[in-house]
Design brief:
By secondary structure, the chain is mostly beta strands. It is built from 5 helices and 24 strands.
Length: about 375
């Protein structure tokens, strides 16, 4: 499946046509490490504990900054991260708090661990350069049920479980259906994403590309309730965002519940054309310095599901920009630049209400 609009936005790909990075682990992945050695490695990390996930929150300056706030234009300075809050059930290090926070990536290529609210984990985390504790898929972190041998070593139990195999994967479900498309919409540029109800992750839990006839199948779905989203259009310029069963508003969407081992078929998802508008403007006080910074204007919807509604356009040599097709909604606009040596650039976050054509939008790009 091609990179989704959501993943591209989350991984700061709005100004890049190709994936910026992929996760590479310096050490063997957890399943390749013998449990005894895995437990010993954990003892050498900064923090090890058994915990239950209470919340998972997105931490990204680009999204959390208030309208009118000045933020770095080099958005790679503040990469998106996930902050996970645990109830500490058992501690193997010097943690005195009953609740503890750990950061990880978003997933989708940045080594982030896919924590789920309500699940119990054995957590292995180190303090990073910012002073926060972080973990990821390259650590020994894992579901508590899958780490019982390591837990026995950590607890100093006299009897170690005989098996060293991980628990069997949880049974998953499959969901198949068909897009009911207007003749003006082609499934060729579309994708279908599933988001677990109650999750705050902006990365889809699962997804698929529809076939030429509009049919689709999504396998490997863990039991639970999900929102289904169809997005369509060129990369960096979506022209459709529709929620199941065929509505433009999340408040009108219906969840789909799947159970372990279930196979849902013949699901009908109606997709109708959506009106778009143009958004155009310029950078104030535009000069040669700003032009050399290769600025792009990013227009994005900060809602978790609608973050796929992100648009990117290069700024022309005269400081102007134009988005020809933008779906209606409330957006934030900023100017983003490539890293440029010693020069630091800042931009102001501006709100843009798109309910008709928008002209003369003025944005700032300032050298600090």
């Amino acid at each position: 499946m091609r990179s989704s609009h959501l993943v591209q936005t989350a991984l700061l790909l709005s100004i890049s046509p190709v994936p910026a990075f992929a996760c590479k682990c310096a050490a063997p992945l957890p399943d390749a490490v013998p449990p005894r050695l895995s437990a010993e490695a954990m003892r050498r990390t900064d923090v090890v504990f058994e915990g239950k996930v209470q919340s998972v929150e997105l931490k990204w300056k680009l999204v959390t900054a208030k309208i009118g706030e000045v933020i770095p234009a080099d958005i790679e300075e503040g990469e998106p991260r996930t902050q996970v809050t645990f109830e500490v059930l058992r501690n193997y290090s010097e943690i005195e708090q009953k609740h503890f926070q750990v950061r990880t990536g978003l997933g989708g290529g940045d080594c982030g661990f896919p924590f789920e609210v309500g699940e119990k984990y054995l957590v292995d985390a180190d303090k990073d350069e910012s002073g926060d504790f972080s973990t990821g898929i390259c650590s020994q972190t894992g579901l508590l049920a899958d780490r019982q041998v390591e837990v026995a070593y950590l607890r100093g139990d006299s009897e170690i479980p005989r098996t060293t195999a991980r628990s069997q994967p949880r049974p998953t479900a499959q969901l198949c259906g068909h897009l009911v498309l207007d003749n003006a919409i082609s499934p060729a540029d579309g994708e279908i994403s599933l988001f677990r109800e109650g999750s705050t992750s902006i990365i889809p839990a699962e997804g698929a590309e529809p076939e030429a006839d509009g049919s689709f199948c999504i396998a490997g779905i863990h039991p639970g309730k999900y929102f289904m989203v169809f997005s369509n259009g060129p990369e960096r310029s979506p022209t459709s965002i529709v929620f199941f069963p065929g509505v433009a508003k999340l408040s009108e969407a219906k969840t789909i519940e799947v159970s372990a081992g279930q196979e849902i078929s013949h699901l009908l998802f109606t997709v109708t054309p959506q009106k778009t508008y143009s958004v155009s403007g310029n950078l104030s006080n535009f000069g040669s310095g700003q032009h050399q910074a290769k600025p792009n204007v990013l227009l994005f919807n900060a809602d978790r599901f609608l973050l796929a509604l992100s648009y990117s356009q290069e700024v022309a040599a005269d400081g102007t920009f134009s988005f020809p097709q933008v779906l209606p909604g409330k957006y934030s606009a900023i100017v983003a630049v490539e890293s440029s040596g010693d020069t630091k650039w800042s931009t102001k976050k501006v709100q843009v209400d798109v309910d008709g054509n928008v002209r003369d939008l003025s944005l700032d790009l300032t050298a600090n």
